[in-house]
Amino acid sequence: MTPTKNVLAVVPPHMGGRTAGAGLATLLPDGVDVTVVETVDEDLTALRAAHVVITALSPVTSEHLAAAPELKLVQCASHGFDYVDLDAARARGVLVCTIGSSGAEAQNVAEQTFALMLALAKRVVPAHTALAAGDWALPRLQGSLTELSGKTLGIVGLGSIGQQVARRAAAFDMAVVYAGRRAVPEETAARLGGARHLPLDELLRRSDYVTLHAPLTDETRHLLDADRLALLRPTAFVINTARGALIDQDALADALDAGTLAGAGLDVFDPEPPTPALRLLKAPNVVLSPHVGGVTRETVIRIALAAVQNAADFLTGKPPGDVVN
What does pTM read for this prediction? Predict the structure, then answer.
């Protein structure tokens, strides 16, 4: 008789909570016992017995890993993995996987990126605010509106999300440059409107818009610090739909306050939710959204299915995809 495999599925309320988790449990192989919770800490007994933890942004710490002697896989229901202690997982022989190659989040994050870019270029927020207050602001706004067409978009991280952004940029007649550890194949770059690989600092100097799509690691934390933000043109915009800590938020607020940067569109913060003291909440020419880049109805379904499929592959003896440690 095959021993039962235990899965702890952590499904936060914004992704459907226990109701959604119960439905996903039916997609796992026979002989798998699934416990659905909304945070890892909710059922420590189930954690101790778990062979697999599936989690969507709920942290898995070194303490959690130490309390789970049977654990073999942490499956992140996201492209990111910064909420899992990778060093502790590696030390205990626990695999950590994402859904990066599935592209489950890519379409909506790319759309959110362009929503923020367009809102900045067309000054949608100040226009709406003025008009709602009875102020016909056209004379003040018309000289400050810009077009995306003809501008250079710098993409930091040309993975599945970055490539979806590049495809949309081509449709807007934007030139695309990108930075990353390595260049993509020439045929891929050609499909993405002739995207050119540049060192990061050179990308920052050349770009009218810079959008971040890199994972958060020790190497990428504060990737855009004060020195790198100073490389941008005063007419440039920064977009971040990846992880808040990729940017030094105080340095970004300084640049916006000083007028050395034209604006910023942010869907992510450090921490989340941001504290009321975060200067970016009151900085000039920012457009903010509460990490909604991956939470459309369609995206949540794709994310969940991709995560469960990867866990199911592991439980049936197949090698899982997107191992990050």
Answer: 0.88
